[in-house]
Structures are given as structure tokens and as C-alpha cells.
Amino acid sequence: MAGIREDYIERMIQKLVAALAAILKAGKAQKTEEALDLVHQTSLSLFGMEYRMLLTIDAASVAGLLEHPEKIKALAKLVSAEADLLQQRGDDVGVAHRLGHALGLLQEARRRRLMPDPELESLVRSVEDRLAQRAISS
User: Fold this and answer.
1) Contact, 47 vs 105, CB < 8 A?
2) Is the alpha carbon torsion for 109, 113, 118, 119 positive or negative?
3) Per-residue pLDDT for the chain (138 aa), expressed as one digit of tens each?
4) Helix-strand-coil split of the chain, %, nearest 5
5) What radius of gyration, in Å, describes the C-alpha atoms of the chain?
6) d(CA 61, CA 19)
7) Which CB contacts under 8 angstroms, 24+ apart, belong to 1-9?
């Protein structure tokens, strides 16, 4: 049974990588609305839940719904990608909210892991740095 679950997680990660690449491509092409649409579609596809719902409840509750640390980390990556898109639109409040939520999700993923995850630690530092830069420039 564990093998089936790990296969599911691997497929989910592959879908996330493809979706993040498409979101990044649309963002670089200044197709922000298209990229934001992809964020919402990806959430529904990967997690079976509306993206807005995953943003409106606290990170610990979302982590409880998603359960697996890799799924939580995947959502944090998606939320962080949306923060980049909102930055392009000049939505400072939205960026701050998304980065804060992404950090909370990453901390929940860290708490639920049995073994250290270098990628997770790198993501935590990156989001913390982005939040610190925002605080300095405010």
C-alpha cells in the first residue's frame, strides 16, 4: 500500500513541476491573468480543492487536510508562485499574505517530516528571505 501512495506522490510532483513551468512561462510573457488561472486549475487538479479555500484557512488546518508533507510542500510552492505573479501586478498586500501562508505551510511540512528534507529547508529560507526583504523595503 505504501508503494501505491508513493507512486501517487511522484505523479503529483511531476504534474506540479509541469504546472509550475507553465505558470512561470505565462508570467514571464506578462500573461499574469493566464498564469493566475493556471494556479487555480493546478490546485483543483492536484489537491481536489478550490485554491481560494486553501488560502482562507490557516496553514495547520490545510496541512491536516493534505496530510502528506510532500503535498503540503507542493501547495507552498504553488502559493509562492502566485506571490511572484501578484508582485508583477503590484499587489503588495496579496504578496505578503501569500508569502506568509507559504511559510506557514512549509513549517507544517517540516513538522510532519520524519527525515530532514534539504529542498524544504531551502524553500523555507527563500520565503523567509523574501518576507524579510519586504519588511526592510516597507
Assistant:
1) no
2) negative
3) 556 667 878 888 899 999 999 999 999 999 999 999 999 999 999 999 999 999 999 999 999 999 999 999 999 999 999 999 999 999 999 999 999 999 999 999 999 998 999 999 999 999 999 999 988 887
4) 85, 0, 15
5) 15
6) 24
7) 5/68, 9/68, 9/70, 9/71
Question: Could you tell me if 106 and 120 are in contact, meaning their C-beta atoms sit under 8 angstroms apart?
Answer: yes
Please answer whether residues 49 and 96 qualify as being in contact, where contact means their C-beta atoms are separated by less than 8 angstroms.
Answer: no
Cell numbers 487536510 correspond to: 65
Between the alpha carbon of residue 115 and those of residues 12, 30, 69, 97, 118, the distances in Å are: 20, 39, 11, 29, 10
Q: Quickly list DSSP for 60-98.
A: HHHHHHH-SHHHHHHHHHHHHHHHHHHHHHT-HHHHHHH
